[in-house]
Amino acid sequence: MTYLCSTQRRRAQVLAHSSLNGIDYVEVIGAPGCGSDLDLTLLRPPLVAPSVDQIYISGGAPVNVLSAQMIGDVPSRTLRIRLDSTGDFSTYTLSLRAGENAQDPPDTFDPRLSEVTFSFKAGCSSVADCYVESCCNENAPPVPAINYLAKDYDGFRQGMLDRMSVLMPAWNESHAADVGITLVEAMAYVADRLSYMQDAVNTEAYLDTARSRISLRRHARLVDYRVGEGCNARSWVCVATAKDALLLPAGTNFYVRTAGVPPVLSPDNPSQTALLKALLSNGQPVYASMADALLYQEQNAIDFYTWSDTNCCLPQGAVGATLSGNLTTLQAGSVLILEEVLGAKTGKPDDSNRVHRWAVRLTEVRTSDDEGKPLVDPFNSAPVTEVTWGIADALPFPLCISSTLDAEHGGNTISGVSRAWGNVVPVDQGVWVAAESLGTVPDAPEAPVSSGCTCSGSTDAGVTLVRYRPTLASGPVTFQLPFDPLAAASTFLNPLTDASAAKPQITVMDDNDRLWTPQSDLLASDEEDLVFVLEIEDGGAASLRFGDGQYGAAVDPGQQFVATYRIGNGRDGLVGSDALLHTVTTLPLISVRNPLPAAAAVDAESPEHIRQHAPFAFESQLRCVTEDDYAVAALQDSDITQARGTMRWTGSWYAGFVSVEPASSAPSDLATLTLSRLDPLRMMGTGLAVEDAIIVGLRITLAVCVASNRFQSDVYTAIMRRFLSGSSCDGNVAVLKAENFTFGQTVYASPLIAAAQAVDGVVSVRLVRFERMDEPSSTPRQQGYLTMGRLEIARCDNDPNRRDHGIFSLQMEGGR
Questions:
Q1: How far apart are CA 435 and CA 510, in angstroms?
Q2: Which of 653, 715, 717, 806 could bond 761 through an S-S bridge, CB–CB 3.0 to 4.6 Å?
Q3: Are strands 687-692 and 654-662 parallel, antiparallel or unpaired?
């Protein structure tokens, strides 16, 4: 893993070493921008010159190494590398390796100085400094979530208070006598009364007037809408163990912080009975492990290894790191939690950024080299471990590893600002209630006698069913998402998106030891299926509905049932970070904690939400008729960023032509895949074709007058960053970024001039060229705008490898 470090000491340390060597720099030999030879200068003359098989060049258009030989006076530090061709504008990496298929450098070369990046076009003229400054950005704080579906007094009050805390952060009054609280509660009361008046006139006959949530659920099922019953909360717990290879069984409970209670309690210790009682009766959510876990002492706490460098950080988007120690117990599939534990400027734990915590699932763990020897730093023989995780778990923020304290706190350089925690166990909310009696099935009511008569003078009695719908004593019943041990760690805490994915945690056993299982409905069940439906009222009370002998097996009078189920569901079970600090077990554990707050909890769907969504669920469009239908259907694929449909007469029939703009990660056969996906949706007798969007490159040139006290190169760099790359440090989106343009969008010159004018050091801006590359004309510049066709998308990427995607240039005037 490459860190971004402001202090780089590795080169000096390698030079001071008696035998280690490394790369000093590389030069491109030849005409500017066209060189096909490289001069690789080493820190000291090598004992054996690197061969062609040991030189690997990657990046951009491929180039091949033809020969390599030392040049200059003996002993020489410069290796002349001859290539078959020059490269493009991309950044290339030259690496020295031990052999053709090896990953390690040659024996005498330092692993951190065995590769170097360069550009074949570095000799091309430029008014700006070619040095790219690396930085670790700080993301803006997340926008607070506001519940826009509040329907009662508490919800309205909390929503208003949440909004007030955003608009007036300094106002934190909570006393009932405060005028602000009084006004908020008065408005919440009025809103609650209005909501009650709407519900008070309802009846159970229709979907939009039903009061009972069970009635709403049944109405919704008739229109093929599945009501969401919510989902329990999840989190990751780090367990510190005092013994290696310790098996922590699934179902181990974890409890919220309780004052005066140690981290680990033993149920067999009589002296801890009072503490155990206090822990179990604290009224807080209880979590349980979802899978067995093997615990190891070396994973209790893990330090990062920075290869002797200081002031380092893992940048945003990082997918790997180097860890201290030979961590052989780590393996692909293990979960680590990366956490900032010290303040970067003060060195105090209380000043650490609690947001900088992230869970990753390892995809590769490297503890040995190509020869099977433990992986070490050749400079000091310190054991290290290289770990990699998936792109889905890429760091969403920069993570500080080491830093320099500010002057107030000594100005010293410290390490261990962040650490990694192993022995990570997935947990979710819920407590099991075992063998709760549901009573005895009563006799069927007396059958009514039908009116009227037959020719024989007899009457037929009607058929009645047993009325048995027991209600559980506790609630709410837990609805749990299945645990995927191979999924990315970041997805574990994602909220529920499919109402049918969460399953109720309940089973029922009858007096004949037959197991009855829950179903969402009984429509697909036959008369022998031992199933039931769990129906939940608005208050959380859950009742069981069994089959009628046709749709699901019917219960018999006199039968007895017991239920085993789990309680704890929804957002009420959410706990903050470092809240789960206790467990009850006989295992030799040291401590437990959850560095990340619980998440993924979803409340059961409210009655109002059912009323709003159920009537329209069956209207989900499964056909394409209009042009917009094709565009909407195409955009269901995340690999397509923009789409537009067009109906054309082909001479014999109509055909739908779908123009798409693929995402950067889209597969090469996207058009074929999209055609296969849309084909079942088209109308009979209508053709279908998928084509790429028409990309129109723009040529834009601005004349910029620079202030007399500013350097042209600084202003040039700032404008190019503002227009093309955006600022990687403040998160601004570039003005000419591709996502800012869509089909048929008119491009105006005024926002471009305004963006350039806003750059510090710019006195004035003048538009020199503003035209399509395929139709050069001065008219758009005079008009101040460029029009696009219906299927055209404007682009100005300024990519030297794709000149047809637009050129953006500056004419700098004035300044220094």
A1: 11
A2: 715
A3: parallel
Residue 90 has pLDDT above 50, yes or no: yes
Per-residue pLDDT band for 7 (boundaries 50, 70, 90) equals low
CB-CB contact of 546 with 553 (8 Å): yes
Provide the mean pLDDT of the chain: 89
**Is 745 within 8 Å of 695 (Cβ atoms)?**
no
Q: What is the pLDDT of residues 721-747, one digit of tens each?
A: 899 876 544 556 789 988 889 999 999
Q: What is the pLDDT of residues 647-691, one digit of tens each?
A: 999 888 999 999 999 887 778 888 999 999 999 999 999 999 999
Decide if 331 contacts 379 (C-beta within 8 A): no
Mean pLDDT for 132-136 is 59
Strand-strand pairing, 506-510 and 515-519 = antiparallel
Q: What is the pTM of this model?
A: 0.66
State the virtual CA torsion across 354, 356, 361, 365 in degrees, nearest 10. -120
Give the DSSP letter string of 565-605.
Answer: EEE--SGGG---TT-EEEEE-SS-EEEEE-SSPPB--BPPP
Distance (Å, rounded) from C-alpha 657 to C-alpha 647?
A: 6
Under CATH, what is the fold of the domain 621-692? Alpha-Beta Plaits (3.30.70)
Domain 4-118 shares a fold with domain 621-692: no
- The whole-number pLDDT of residue 464 equals 78
Domain boundaries, the chain: 4-118, 153-203, 234-293+579-593, 301-422, 621-692, 695-814
**CB 565, CB 506: distance < 8 Å:** yes
Q: How many Å apart are CA 521 and CA 543, to the nearest integer?
A: 14
Residues in contact with 223: Cβ distance below 8 Å, sequence separation at least 6, in sequence order = 207, 614, 615, 617, 618
Measured from the Cβ of residue 622, the count of other Cβ atoms closer than 10 Å reads: 7
On the question of pLDDT at 451 being above 90, the answer is no
E strand spans, 600-686 = 640-649, 654-662
- The secondary structure element, H or E, covering residue 560 is strand 560-567
Residue 115 forms beta bridges with which residues?
95
How far is residue 210's CA from residue 558's CA, in Å, rounded to a whole number?
34
Cα–Cα distances (Å) from 54 to 68, 77, 371, 575, in that order, read 10, 17, 17, 54
Any idea how long the chain is?
Answer: 816
What's the CATH code, domain 4-118? 2.60.40.1220
User: Cα separation of 381 and 19, whole Å?
Assistant: 14
